[in-house]
Amino acid sequence: MSAEGLERRTRNYLSDNVPQIQDHGGHFQIEDVDEATGEVTVSIGGACSGCGIAPMTMRAIEQRLPDEVDEVTSVKVRRASGPRAAVMPNKTDEMEDMEEYSDYSPPF
Fold it and tell me: How many domains in the chain?
């Protein structure tokens, strides 16, 4: 499969299975796709940058995408940078390492 095809399948999975990102004023962008290794990098931004469950959404994407898109072997999800990074101040950095959220499983 080509990187373009892998990117399209990744985008389709996120659009179809994680609609909360866009429904709540956030956005995602496929930053990089390595066809040879199956590694995918996704960034989320907009309202996601200040959302309390963003760390759990990021973790869920990292865990579920490889199970759903066969060619994906690993996923890195990060917050967007630049002009599309946030519509509110980022308040969730410290939450990413909190044990309370390590087992959270969003309903998507």
Answer: 1
Whether 23 maps to a domain, the answer reads: yes
Identify whether the C-beta of residue 39 lies closer than 8 Å to the C-beta of residue 90: no
Residue 40 lies in a domain: yes
Average pLDDT over residues 48-56: 79
CATH code at 69? 3.30.300.130
In a domain, 25, yes or no: yes
- Gap between the Cα atoms of 90 and 25, Å rounded: 14
Local structure of 30: helix, strand or coil: strand
Sheet holding 26-34, edge to edge: 26-34, 39-46, 74-79
Model confidence pLDDT, tens digit, residues 73-106? 999 998 887 655 544 444 445 555 656 556 656 6
SS3 (DSSP) at 7 = helix
Does residue 106 fall inside a structural domain? no
Asked if 17 and 9 count as a contact pair (C-beta separation under 8 A), the reply is no
For residue 48, what are the domain limits? 3-101
Residue 72's CB: how many other CB atoms inside 10 A?
A: 20
